[in-house]
Design goal:
The complex is a heterodimer of chains A (about 500) and B (about 150). Chain A is built from 22 helices and 2 strands. Chain A is mostly helical and about 500 residues long. Chain A has one domain (about 5-500). Chain A has a two-stranded antiparallel sheet. In chain A, a hairpin with a 6-residue loop joins strand 1 and strand 2. In chain A, helix 3 (about 35-45) packs parallel to helix 15 and helix 5 (about 85-95) runs antiparallel to helix 14. Chain B is mostly helical and about 150 residues long. Chain B folds into 2 domains: about 10-65; about 75-145. Chain B contains 5 helices and no strands. Chain B is flat, with a radius of gyration of 23 Å. The chains are: A mainly alpha (about 500), B mainly alpha (about 150). At the A-B interface, helix 9, helix 10, helix 18, helix 19 and helix 20 of A face helix 1, helix 2, helix 3, helix 4 and helix 5 of B.
């Protein structure tokens, strides 16, 4: 961790790479259907001729930029640009609809920078000890983590808990369609070849979030977003004050993001949802999550960007990539001849530390670049006529969904799910619980089946599910998440009776 | 999440959708009986039961305590239908006429559906031109930069 490594990261070439990576990643991430994985996969070949540290800086900058870029479409179009931005739609789009889209974009930028910095500092200072967390998580812990994520349904379904749970269950059933990962059975396809590949998460996200918005937009002549006359750019000062006021939420969400980033397979979407759940659980009575609450955006965006640094911890220290983008970075490192593992920090210290400092610099550069792109994106979306915006977004949903698996079937499933989501959404079955189930279903199933098999084999099924300390901690948090809102509501109802 | 608007069809619609979820749960439960491996059964079976239970409870609650909330809301139906049909038609046409021509079908349908102002020659030319530019730009980005094999 020498000062020389910091100076190595500050060379003009590395700075240009960091800036280019952040801008390119942000633009790619903002387009629904284009993921951080795709951006990295496309740009990996150009890094082969670079020195390893510069290559890593470019890839890290693209990754962090793409995660942040997902917030634009989530806020302005109610469509998560990347799965990491799912929870950003909960409050981002309501803010945009009421005329605060510019503020929401600025908040997302501040939160992403804070989260990115916390994740990168964790990578810099705590990588070897934190990597042990990844090893402490077995299948049961993953199962309980997914149940914890699903407990968010309770808070997302105020007044419609049964419908929320039914929606979550429907999402989990959707996740089981196709070839079973655990045993290769063909499930819930009803003989249709179309369904054998299952529902792709990205296509489902685009369908469930974006298509209903388009259907609603064309039906009435109302503007797509409300615009305040006196606001002409992104509200940086106001966003900074809100972010500073919510510093505890920012730090807590960033730590959650870092820790979940360390867990292989969890990723930014789970981190964003868990951080959102925690922010909502500890909210003040006057905060209305789900209706345009700035703290919801701060929690999600800080957590998902913190997973970038967190995800690099097991990738570099253990050689275990936490997410698909991490796997691409790992592959690029192997091509460069760099061996990852516990000795990497000592044997290839100059590469690792130069990269980490480069990631820190790229995250800082995301502030001006992100605010500038955010301002442009906001103005473009607000000023574009609805008659052009709707077909443009419609075309993007088709091309974005097709590009994931080069499949027309995915596009048709996306549209079908979108229309279904719109119909059921009009009667209280919201899209978010379905999406939660779809994303967390595979993690829950794999953890459950593996844990069940191990528990049965060892003759201690109860101990397997409930006896492990980390599991017990997660179960306690899940119960808190589920019952604290009910307890708070009960207290609120009781208070007037006591006063009366 | 869509706004909940008070509409007369809200009560019946809510009952129908809850019943639909129950039926889907029963169908899923039946499907699990045909799996060879018990490991593939346990999760979808549990989830299907959960769906039947929760949607069933929602159905019963709604039946016992009718509320006129929810519904399709106001708005022009032909515009919604045109948008959906255009997007489906475009998707089905992709393998036959290619991505750009199919995209043009989706774009034209969406444009007509979303256009609430009076059409003029200028707006028609401007919107069609900007649509063509957007589609060509995205097509080029995906096909030549990102190497997505668009038909």
């Amino acid at each position: 961790m020498e000062f020389g490594h910091f100076l190595s990261a500050l060379t003009p070439f590395n700075l240009v790479l960091a800036l280019f990576g952040v801008v390119a990643g942000t633009i790619v991430g903002s387009i629904p259907g284009l993921t951080a994985t795709m951006a990295l996969a496309v740009l990996v070949p150009i890094t082969f001729s670079m020195d390893p540290a510069s290559a890593l800086i470019l890839l890290g900058a693209i990754y962090t930029g793409a995660i942040y870029g997902g917030a634009y479409a989530a806020i302005l179009l109610n469509t998560p640009g990347t799965p990491s931005a799912i929870a950003t739609t909960f409050d981002g789009y309501p803010m945009a609809k009421r005329g605060d889209g510019d503020l929401a974009v600025a908040l997302a930028c501040f939160a992403s920078v804070v989260g990115g910095l916390v994740g990168a500092f964790a990578l810099l200072l705590l990588a070897p000890p934190l990597s042990k967390v990844a090893l402490a998580f077995g299948p049961i812990e993953y199962f309980w983590l997914s149940i914890f994520g699903l407990s968010l349904i309770a808070s997302l379904s105020t007044g419609n808990l049964m419908k929320g749970l039914a929606g979550g269950a429907f999402g989990m059933l959707l996740s089981t369609v196709g070839v079973a990962e655990v045993s290769a059975d063909i499930r819930l396809t009803f003989g249709s070849q179309m369904l054998v590949g299952g529902f792709g998460v990205i296509g489902a996200l685009i369908g469930l979030y974006c298509i209903p918005v388009l259907i609603d937009l064309v039906a009435t002549p109302d503007r797509h977003l409300k615009v305040e006359e006196d606001v002409r750019s992104v509200r940086i000062g106001e966003a900074f004050r809100i972010a500073a006021r919510s510093k505890f939420n920012l730090i807590r969400s960033s730590v959650i993001g870092t820790l979940i980033g360390i867990l292989p397979g969890a990723g930014g979407s789970v981190a964003g949802l868990v951080a959102y759940s925690e922010a909502k659980r500890s909210a003040r009575p006057d905060q209305k999550f789900g209706q345009g609450e700035p703290d919801g955006i701060l929690a999600t965006e800080s957590a998902n960007n913190a997973t970038v640094g967190g995800g690099f911890i097991p990738t570099l220290v253990l050689g275990i990539p936490g997410t698909p983008p991490d796997a691409i970075v790992l592959g690029a490192l192997l091509v460069q001849g760099v061996r990852t593992g516990p000795t990497m920090f000592s044997q290839s210290g100059s590469i690792v530390y130069t990269f980490i400092y480069g990631l820190l610099i790229a995250t800082v550069l995301m502030l001006p670049a992100g605010l500038l792109i955010g301002r442009y994106a906001y103005k473009s979306i607000v000023n574009i006529p609805k008659a052009v915006l709707v077909p443009t977004v419609g075309f993007m949903t088709i091309i974005g969904t097709f590009s994931i698996r080069n499949s027309v079937t995915d596009v048709i499933l996306m549209l079908g799910l979108g229309v279904f989501g719109w119909v059921v959404g009009r009667f209280g079955f919201a899209a978010s619980p379905i999406v939660l189930g779809l994303i967390l279903g595979p993690i829950a199933e794999q953890g459950f089946v593996q844990g069940w098999t191990i528990g049965s084999a060892t003759g201690n099924l109860f101990g397997m599910f409930f006896g492990r300390p980390i599991s017990q901690g997660i179960i306690a948090f899940t119960l808190l998440s589920l019952f604290l809102p009910l307890y708070a509501a009960w207290r609120l109802r009781k208070k007037p009776q006591e006063q009366g | 999440m869509p706004d909940q608007q008070r509409q007369p069809e809200g009560h019946v619609g809510s009952l129908v959708i809850s019943a639909l979820f129950v039926i889907m749960g029963i169908v899923a439960l039946y499907d699990t009986t045909g799996y060879y491996d018990r490991d593939s059964q346990v999760f979808p079976r549990t989830v299907a039961l959960l769906m039947i239970l929760t949607a069933g409870l929602s159905l019963v609650t709604r039946f016992l305590h009718p509320r006129e909330s929810g519904g399709f809301g106001t708005g022009t139906w032909w515009r919604r239908v045109l948008l959906i049909l255009a997007m489906f038609a475009a998707s089905l046409a992709i393998p036959h006429i290619g991505f750009l021509a199919s995209g043009a079908i989706a774009f034209a349908g969406g444009l007509i559906a979303a256009m609430h102002d009076r059409w003029t020659v200028t707006t028609a030319a401007l919107y069609a031109g900007s649509g063509a530019a957007v589609m060509i730009a995205f097509f080029a980005l995906f096909r030549y930069v990102l190497h997505v094999p668009l038909p």
